[in-house]
Amino acid sequence: MIVLMEITIYITLILVGLCMGSFAGAMTWRLRAGELADDKKRGDNYDKTEYKQLKKLAHVKTAQDRSVCLNCSYKLRWYDLIPLVSWLSLGGKCRKCHQRIGYFEPLMELGTALFFVLSFVFWPGQLIEPLQIVHFIIWLIAGVALAILFAYDTKWFLLPDKLNYILIGLGLASSAIITVSSGNPAATIGSIAGSVAILSGMYFVIYLVSRGKWIGFGDIKLGLGLALLLADWQLAFIALFVANLVGCLIVIPLMIMGKLKRDSHIQFGPLLIIGTIVAWLAGAAILSWYSGIVLV
Ligand SMILES: [Zn+2]
User: pTM to 2 decimals?
Assistant: First the structure.
């Protein structure tokens, strides 16, 4: 009976994760199209070819509108929108013009589904009380926002405000639940303040020192949302450490191969997102392993 229930939970998480990943992929393009349209309206610099291509999407803002092929404007039908299945059955090409669609959509779908499953497997706490389950669902929704932020920052070096504010809202809800459920609310609030200081405050200082040259204000807002999600200064520290570690693992080989110039811009958003997920799901294990080393 329990096994059957577990299997049901896993299948649900995978299916909902795939659908949410598909939604996140579509939202990434729509947000970009909306932003380019805003830039144009304001008379800012914007990529004209990209705008032309995405203009078809700029009008597609309500949920019932269908996505279109960016090459031939073919309106995707319901059977083109089944996560992963459609992409695989079409060999990664548009049904009508056979233009390659690329790996972005399936990666978003698989990534989000993986996030859903790993979150359940490594959830640091029980999932019995209603409040605990609400907390888990808030984390999953935050994961969808993080998937879009991750993709957006990787592609365009930007973290859209709208998404950052949604993340901060979800972070506040998480922090509230963690505070209410903790035996010592005052200490928890202190730890949340520490988390915010580490993940957001430090960026704010770097932002001020470099006058916005090294990092953007978007990183500070992302840091705030992530800090509130973690709600623990030690976890925040681990997130920052993992982000830097992964950053080094990517940057050093690129430098050795000579593919990275001195003034190359590195997106810190995706690294911080990875760091936060690792810290939340494996932070307790990392801390006990670390204190084991120190004590030995
Ligand atoms: Zn097409």
Answer: 0.90
Domain segments of the chain: what residues? 1-121, 142-296
CA of 41 to the centre of ligand 1 (A): 28
Q: Which two tokens stand for residue 147?
A: 């998937």
Ligand 1 centroid–CA 276 distance in Å is 37
Using CA atoms, how far apart are residues 287 and 236, in angstroms rounded to an integer?
A: 12
Ligand 1 centre to CA of 216 (Å) is: 36
Of 135, 141, 185, 188, give the one whose Cα is nearest residue 166. 141
How many whole angstroms separate alpha carbon 145 and alpha carbon 167?
7
153 CA to centre of ligand 1 in angstroms: 26
Distances (CA, A) of 78 to 16, 46, 67, 86, 106: 17, 33, 10, 10, 16
Task: For residue 6, give Cα distances in angstroms to 9, 19, 91, 274.
Answer: 5, 20, 33, 27
Tell me how far apart the alpha carbons of residues 210 and 27 are, in angstroms, rounded to a whole number: 32
List pLDDT tens digits, range 75-127: 888 888 889 999 999 999 999 999 888 899 999 999 999 999 999 999 999 99
